[in-house]
Amino acid sequence: MHQSPRAGREGDVLAVVSQSGSAVSFFDAASDRRLGSVDVAAQPHEVCFDPTRRLVWCASTYHSGYYHANSGRQTVLTVIDPDTRRVVDTVDLAPEHGPHGLALDVERGRLYVGVEASADRPGGVVVIDAATRRPLGRIDTGAPGPHWFAVDPAGRTGYATNKEAPFVSVVDLERGTLTAKIEVPGSEGLAVSADGSQVFVASPYALFSGKPGDAAGGEPPVTGVRVVDAATASVVGVLPTDHLVMPVHLTSTGKVLAGEVCMEAGPESRPGRHAPGRLTVFDAATRELLGRLPVGRFPLTITASPDGRLAYVACVVSSTVHVVDLETLEESALLEIAAAGEAGAHGLAYIPRPA
């Protein structure tokens, strides 16, 4: 008998970024009831939960627009208490700007924030002390647009995906240096395996005009998730998909979740012309395709419950979050973020109830 994936989730909370609504909304993970929201700086994109201090970090990336077309880059992170649902601090990273990807090393209490290039420096990762909330330094990634960042379980190696650059940046977190470049045709989301031996990278990056590979000429590369051997910093396989993938998440049960971005037919591919997207699920160990199911337009962020039973897929254009039972691969609930007076579902964080 299939047990409800909601069993035992009383008190757990899901945080959802409303990108164009400039807010972070909170939902009861057991009932899907909306609990309230917190206003943040314009254009919030990603969130990260610090379980030690029970705080949510939220990165605001642009003043308006998106990566390929914006009116200027933000410099701030908002720190939120998810239990009282109030802002407790704002951290200004200036002169660093365009903060987006967030990754936390829980053991060392360090938050890593991807920032975009400036005239005098390449893109990089700002290191923040999670306890004092003060920047400790930055690590150059050698590319203009590092967008997502992930840390291996040991907290020693970090990986930054770079949209246009033909590589994933590998950085030594202890020495604060760029140590390798993994060759890929541009990249989006990523996830690191529980033992740190593999990295799963969405590639190529998402163009909103033309086809992937047009900028480099020739045939477009295979779309999907690149499987990277961490020891050799090289691609050893591809989990193929029919469409471009942006978000990638690896569950605690070893499932690779990929969000495929599907476009309407026509000569022009741009934001606003999105068809319903797709959640595609692979077995990380065998690389077997486990199934697919439709989700909203433009899946941009994916996370999962700690037990790996539920997936959450945030779709920015339809402003919906799709809750998926990963054992049956069926949608179990739909959260309509726009119905709450906000829009642009983006970053996600699952927040277990206090111990």
From TrEMBL:
It comes from the Bacteria. SUPFAM superfamilies: C-terminal (heme d1) domain of cytochrome cd1-nitrite reductase. InterPro entries: Haem_d1_sf, Host-pathogen_enzymatic-act, WD40/YVTN_repeat-like_dom_sf. This is Surface layer protein. The lineage of its organism: Bacteria, Bacillati, Actinomycetota, Actinomycetes, Kitasatosporales.
